[in-house]
Design goal:
Layout: E1 4-7, E2 10-13, E3 18-24, E4 32-39, E5 46-51, E6 58-60, E7 68-73, E8 78-83, E9 92-102, E10 114-117, E11 121-126
Parallel strand pairs: 2-11
Antiparallel strand pairs: 1-3, 3-8, 4-5, 4-9, 5-6, 7-8, 9-10, 9-11
């Protein structure tokens, strides 16, 4: 089982930036799609961004498109989320997750497709 550990959350004013990191254990990191999810108080967890196992392909939710950038460094077993132009509605606990499908090249993602999750990191954006 891959272990994922997020870091980098915190408090920021609207319009500011934060960068999240997620370090993975094991030797198979580069075989899997990685993703960031978030869950705001009282809301369901939502998919924010995904990145292909090689790093060339990315997908974003409409709510963060153009403001957030997902990237990965397979040599460091780490996935990142750069968040710019933050809004109060971005306030949530952010989770990184690993897709269960080896070398997946599709674009269909459900929460059930992800079998390893980090503990989450809080991001709070003040107005």
């Amino acid at each position: 089982q891959v272990q994922l550990v997020e870091s980098g959350g915190g408090l920021v004013q609207a319009g500011g930036s934060l960068s999240l990191s997620c370090a993975a254990s094991g030797r198979t990191f580069s075989m899997y799609v990685m993703a960031w999810f978030r869950q705001a108080p009282g809301k369901e967890r939502e998919l924010v961004a995904t990145i292909s196992w090689g790093g060339a392909g990315t997908l974003y939710s409409d709510s963060v498109q153009g403001r957030f950038t997902i990237s990965r460094d397979n040599a460091k077993n780490t996935v990142y989320l750069q968040m710019n132009s933050l809004k109060p509605e971005d306030t949530a606990v952010y989770y990184c997750a690993k897709d269960r499908r080896v070398y997946y090249t599709g674009s269909n993602y459900r929460e059930a497709d992800f079998d390893s999750w980090g503990q989450g990191t809080q991001v709070t954006v003040s107005s």
